[in-house]
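Cont'd.
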Amino acid sequence: MFEIDKNLKNDCIFIKKLDKSQLLLMNNSNFKWLVLVPEITNAVELTDLEFSEQIDILNEINIVAKILQNRFNPTKINIAALGNIVKQLHIHIIARFENDIAFPKPVWGFESKKYQPADAQYLIEEIKNDLKFK
Amino acid sequence: MFEIDKNLKNDCIFIKKLDKSQLLLMNNSNFKWLVLVPEITNAVELTDLEFSEQIDILNEINIVAKILQNRFNPTKINIAALGNIVKQLHIHIIARFENDIAFPKPVWGFESKKYQPADAQYLIEEIKNDLKFK
């Protein structure tokens, strides 16, 4: 039975279950930062997945990246699988803007600021709505 | 005619042309840090590529990640497409170790230390040798 890592649960807000992964919102209002967690027990490295599984995840990365692009028109999308702290395989998909607090540096290590619950809920509903058309 | 971005040329050492991309060594001996540059003119975002092109690049990411895993037995592989500074689409594939100077933080922003030319050449020859068997 697949379960999301407890650190990810703590840092993120659940958005929606996709076909092969769960989509989370990083609870940091400084960035438009989503996290895709493939529902594959014990996966740590991308190379732990069968290539067909990787292709399925790549498809969902595209879906999520395009939603961020279409909705927010960011300067750049950042996509990363790091996992130095949280081992469970998870992919960061982040809309970056020239005026965000970290740009052009990567987002990690910068100040985190939790969403107001209503703001998070509004954003989640927008993204869920966009996912309906994918 | 595809050409590697001048910043990447400046920061990296060419290793080998793969089927769909060029493989570079980041000239920073603090990390085992490779960079894969798809040979697709004007590509910036992953989503700029056809899905079939993305799958080809995913295959080469696997090849490179597995070489780092087999040769160096790292704690973790980090894979990232950021591109906030260098727009040309390029994918970082980095072998991370608990005792590297940045761990568990991402590598960006940490001190860079150029290879001694002979050390870089030795490492490049090792990786080229591993690529022969892929």
